[in-house]
């Protein structure tokens, strides 16, 4: 299948017809200010903006501001403004790990809880500009904690509940968080995750590094008996009873920080991506409405955890800003079995379902019977995000899940972009399996070659964006120079995405994957450098090099070449030990899939590891190793190939 023409049923009732998209897109790039002056009003402002855009991508002077003189409160936009018209409508449908466990929360109830938590924050001495780390399972209180942070004008940093104490500590230090919001335990596939214990450990680690987290707010989830530190730790269910359900939202500037989200890059430690309030919310709400063609009263389910940007923008902020009903799912796709997702779709009459290719591939592998068990008749639209979707998985999603009835939006974006930048639009675009199709409003993609020369027409190259959009990240928290260096120095004057892409003869965009040392494992972004530094922190490891390799379900797997210290003997037990070590250092999502012992690593004479060669060996592509003559010791390559062939 090469192309699926847009169906009449998809156009029915849609706001964005093809003509309107073309018309709006033209305006959004020709009259950027006029376009956003109008669409910025889709959210409620306390003091309306007069200035729309003030941005520069110029090296040494990168600065991004949108709606800068406007003021607003994000939680008031997601809650208060809906109370009059939809106070009794469900805001969040929570589906627990256990299929027997679910809850519906109305806008009125959510509003009351957010006000309570805002008051608890204040009673703990946390307010405007303070940082709050949120380390939570997928329960409604995670959204409450985020919205309450926005309500008091604090800055949240959500840390995925699967990260280790070390990883959490690094993020709490980096953001100098005053408060940690966590739960006694999380629950995934029936297994308990010791969140509070991890949090305690992380606070100790940060304290040793010189940062003291002052307060901990603990949500009771499983009822586990967890130690509470007197004066530092507080139970949410107790504090909640002591405070009122009234909390005046803080008046924030459009450019006041809303959240920090740590994400992996090609070098060094994860970066704290900083998003601000006004532009981010406009982008979240605009993309949520138009990309998913979201209609009043519909149930929207984005399966992403709030620990990732997709969970921020499309599980919480986008749908709530639009007065929608959002599903939060605590569990995993294959528990109790691989029919769970479709069962949940039927149970809650989900209209729009948005997930990652890795989940699609895993469910495809489990067989069509699980899909057929559910009617899925409520579904109107399917979405994909996080990594390139292979045509086989796309076709299965389209045919088996959607029964050729539902459009698929393959949405390309990044933590840095705040929301979707490229995607098909359900009522406007013919679909090509694997293509992220066309840019959203004001997004100006450009392909450049290695030297930075702009490529025109059908071409393959590195993907840049040449002008700002409201949802763009503003800086790396506490390190503006790193922001400029990472995104604006490779091709001066342009935002470089780190992705490769192809534009075909119809002008459709195809994302080909990262061109830097970032890998995408089950839709999770990982810096190879992070895994390497975890490996070399083990006393028996002298050096390590990590690359991605194609993996049937995960998209990419983690392949590690490890050189041991002199005198250390390689063994399968040691491999297991290293896997455990990496899990402890970063978290289970960073578990090495393969470890190969490497007596030496291929390095240039200046000591740079040639990963290109390591990637080829990991892929079993020995004929394409390319030129190895610049290596300091070309013989190491022969050893690696031999070891690979012998699966050592
Ligand atoms: C990849 C997730 C192909 C890409 C929202 C990007 C995709 C990285 C797609 C960002 C897609 C995301 N097709 N690749 N539809 N969506 N990616 O920051 O490599 O976790 O740079 O944001 O995921 O990952 P992040």
UniProtKB/TrEMBL annotation:
<protein>
    <recommendedName>
        <fullName>Acetyl-coenzyme A synthetase</fullName>
        <ecNumber>6.2.1.1</ecNumber>
    </recommendedName>
</protein>
<dbReference type="GO" id="GO:0016208">
    <property type="term" value="F:AMP binding"/>
</dbReference>
<dbReference type="InterPro" id="IPR032387">
    <property type="entry name" value="ACAS_N"/>
</dbReference>
<dbReference type="Pfam" id="PF13193">
    <property type="entry name" value="AMP-binding_C"/>
</dbReference>
<feature type="binding site">
    <location>
        <position position="522"/>
    </location>
    <ligand>
        <name>CoA</name>
    </ligand>
</feature>
<feature type="domain" description="Acetyl-coenzyme A synthetase N-terminal">
    <location>
        <begin position="21"/>
        <end position="78"/>
    </location>
</feature>
<feature type="modified residue" description="N6-acetyllysine">
    <location>
        <position position="608"/>
    </location>
</feature>
<feature type="binding site">
    <location>
        <begin position="386"/>
        <end position="388"/>
    </location>
    <ligand>
        <name>ATP</name>
    </ligand>
</feature>
<feature type="binding site">
    <location>
        <position position="499"/>
    </location>
    <ligand>
        <name>ATP</name>
    </ligand>
</feature>
<dbReference type="Pfam" id="PF00501">
    <property type="entry name" value="AMP-binding"/>
</dbReference>
<feature type="binding site">
    <location>
        <position position="334"/>
    </location>
    <ligand>
        <name>CoA</name>
    </ligand>
</feature>
<keyword id="KW-0007">Acetylation</keyword>
<keyword id="KW-0436">Ligase</keyword>
<dbReference type="GO" id="GO:0003987">
    <property type="term" value="F:acetate-CoA ligase activity"/>
</dbReference>
<dbReference type="InterPro" id="IPR025110">
    <property type="entry name" value="AMP-bd_C"/>
</dbReference>
<dbReference type="InterPro" id="IPR020845">
    <property type="entry name" value="AMP-binding_CS"/>
</dbReference>
<feature type="binding site">
    <location>
        <begin position="188"/>
        <end position="191"/>
    </location>
    <ligand>
        <name>CoA</name>
    </ligand>
</feature>
<feature type="binding site">
    <location>
        <position position="538"/>
    </location>
    <ligand>
        <name>Mg(2+)</name>
    </ligand>
</feature>
<dbReference type="GO" id="GO:0019427">
    <property type="term" value="P:acetyl-CoA biosynthetic process from acetate"/>
</dbReference>
<comment type="similarity">
    <text>Belongs to the ATP-dependent AMP-binding enzyme family.</text>
</comment>
<feature type="domain" description="AMP-binding enzyme C-terminal">
    <location>
        <begin position="530"/>
        <end position="608"/>
    </location>
</feature>
<feature type="binding site">
    <location>
        <position position="525"/>
    </location>
    <ligand>
        <name>ATP</name>
    </ligand>
</feature>
<feature type="binding site">
    <location>
        <position position="514"/>
    </location>
    <ligand>
        <name>ATP</name>
    </ligand>
</feature>
<feature type="binding site">
    <location>
        <position position="310"/>
    </location>
    <ligand>
        <name>CoA</name>
    </ligand>
</feature>
<dbReference type="InterPro" id="IPR000873">
    <property type="entry name" value="AMP-dep_synth/lig_dom"/>
</dbReference>
<feature type="binding site">
    <location>
        <position position="536"/>
    </location>
    <ligand>
        <name>Mg(2+)</name>
    </ligand>
</feature>
<feature type="binding site">
    <location>
        <position position="541"/>
    </location>
    <ligand>
        <name>Mg(2+)</name>
    </ligand>
</feature>
<dbReference type="InterPro" id="IPR045851">
    <property type="entry name" value="AMP-bd_C_sf"/>
</dbReference>
<dbReference type="InterPro" id="IPR042099">
    <property type="entry name" value="ANL_N_sf"/>
</dbReference>
<keyword id="KW-0067">ATP-binding</keyword>
<feature type="binding site">
    <location>
        <position position="583"/>
    </location>
    <ligand>
        <name>CoA</name>
    </ligand>
</feature>
<dbReference type="GO" id="GO:0005524">
    <property type="term" value="F:ATP binding"/>
</dbReference>
<dbReference type="GO" id="GO:0005829">
    <property type="term" value="C:cytosol"/>
</dbReference>
<dbReference type="InterPro" id="IPR011904">
    <property type="entry name" value="Ac_CoA_lig"/>
</dbReference>
<dbReference type="GO" id="GO:0046872">
    <property type="term" value="F:metal ion binding"/>
</dbReference>
<feature type="domain" description="AMP-dependent synthetase/ligase">
    <location>
        <begin position="80"/>
        <end position="467"/>
    </location>
</feature>
<keyword id="KW-0460">Magnesium</keyword>
<keyword id="KW-0547">Nucleotide-binding</keyword>
<dbReference type="Pfam" id="PF16177">
    <property type="entry name" value="ACAS_N"/>
</dbReference>
<feature type="binding site">
    <location>
        <begin position="410"/>
        <end position="415"/>
    </location>
    <ligand>
        <name>ATP</name>
    </ligand>
</feature>
<comment type="function">
    <text>Catalyzes the conversion of acetate into acetyl-CoA (AcCoA), an essential intermediate at the junction of anabolic and catabolic pathways. AcsA undergoes a two-step reaction. In the first half reaction, AcsA combines acetate with ATP to form acetyl-adenylate (AcAMP) intermediate. In the second half reaction, it can then transfer the acetyl group from AcAMP to the sulfhydryl group of CoA, forming the product AcCoA.</text>
</comment>
<keyword id="KW-0479">Metal-binding</keyword>
């Amino acid at each position: 299948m090469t192309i699926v023409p847009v169906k009449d049923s998809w156009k029915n009732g849609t706001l964005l017809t093809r003509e309107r998209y073309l018309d709006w897109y033209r305006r959004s790039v020709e009259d950027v200010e006029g376009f956003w002056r109008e669409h910025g009003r889709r959210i409620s402002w306390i003091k309306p903006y007069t200035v729309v855009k003030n941005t520069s991508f110029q090296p040494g002077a990168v600065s991004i501001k949108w709606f800068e003189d406007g003021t607003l409160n994000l939680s008031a936009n997601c809650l208060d403004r809906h109370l009059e018209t939809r106070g009794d409508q469900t805001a969040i449908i929570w589906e627990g790990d256990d299929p027997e466990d679910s809850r519906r929360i109305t806008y009125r109830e959510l509003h009351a809880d957010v006000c309570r938590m805002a008051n608890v924050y204040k009673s703990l001495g946390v307010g405007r500009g303070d940082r709050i780390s949120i380390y939570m399972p997928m329960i409604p209180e995670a959204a409450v904690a985020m919205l309450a942070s926005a309500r008091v004008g604090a800055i949240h940093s959500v840390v995925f509940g699967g990260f280790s104490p070390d990883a959490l500590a690094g993020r709490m230090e980096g953001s100098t968080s005053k408060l940690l919001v966590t739960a006694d335990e999380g629950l995934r596939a029936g297994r308990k995750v010791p969140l509070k214990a991890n949090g305690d450990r992380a606070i100790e680690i940060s304290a040793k590094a010189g940062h003291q987290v002052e307060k901990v707010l603990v949500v009771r989830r499983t009822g586990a008996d967890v130690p509470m530190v007197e004066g530092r730790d507080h139970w949410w269910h107790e504090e909640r009873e002591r405070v009122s359900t009234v909390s005046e939202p803080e008046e924030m500037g459009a450019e006041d920080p809303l959240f920090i989200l740590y994400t992996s890059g090609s070098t060094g430690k994860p970066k704290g991506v900083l998003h601000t309030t006004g532009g981010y919310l406009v982008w979240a709400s605009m993309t949520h409405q138009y990309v998913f063609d979201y209609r009043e009263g519909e149930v929207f389910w984005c399966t992403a955890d709030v620990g990732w940007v997709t969970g921020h923008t499309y599980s919480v902020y986008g749908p709530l800003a639009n007065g929608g009903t959002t599903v939060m799912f605590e569990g995993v796709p294959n528990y109790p079995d691989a029919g769970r997702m479709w069962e949940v779709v039927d149970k809650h009459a989900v209209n729009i379902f948005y997930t990652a290719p890795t989940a699609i591939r895993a469910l495809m592998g489990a067989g069509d019977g699980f899909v057929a068990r559910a009617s899925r008749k409520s579904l109107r639209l399917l979405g994909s995000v996080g990594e390139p979707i292979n045509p086989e998985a796309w076709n299965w999603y389209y045919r088996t899940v959607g029964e050729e009835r539902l459009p698929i939006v393959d949405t390309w974006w990044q933590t840095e972009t705040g929301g979707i930048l490229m995607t098909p639009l359900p009522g406007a675009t013919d679909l090509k399996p694997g293509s992220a199709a066309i840019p959203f409003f004001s997004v100006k993609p450009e392909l450049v070659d290695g030297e930075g020369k702009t490529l025109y027409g059908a071409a393959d190259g590195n993907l840049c964006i040449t002008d700002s959009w409201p949802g763009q990240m503003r800086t790396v928290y506490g390190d503006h120079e790193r922001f400029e260096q990472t995104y604006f120095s490779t091709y001066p004057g342009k935002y470089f995405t780190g992705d490769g892409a192809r534009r075909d003869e119809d002008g459709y965009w195809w994302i080909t994957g990262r061109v830097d040392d970032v890998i995408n494992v089950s839709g999770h972004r990982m810096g190879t450098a992070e895994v390497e530094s975890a490996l070399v922190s083990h006393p028996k490891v002298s050096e390590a090099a990590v690359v991605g390799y194609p993996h049937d379900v995960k998209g990419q797997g983690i392949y590690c070449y490890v050189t041991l210290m002199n005198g250390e003997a390689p063994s399968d037990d040691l491999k297991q030990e290293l896997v455990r070590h990496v899990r402890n250092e970063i978290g289970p999502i960073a578990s090495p899939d393969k470890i190969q012992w490497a007596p030496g690593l291929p390095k240039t004479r200046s000591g740079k590891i040639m990963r290109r060669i390591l990637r080829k060996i990991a892929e079993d592509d020995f004929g394409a190793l390319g030129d190895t003559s610049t290596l300091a010791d070309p013989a190491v390559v022969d050893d690696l190939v031999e070891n690979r062939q012998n699966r050592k």
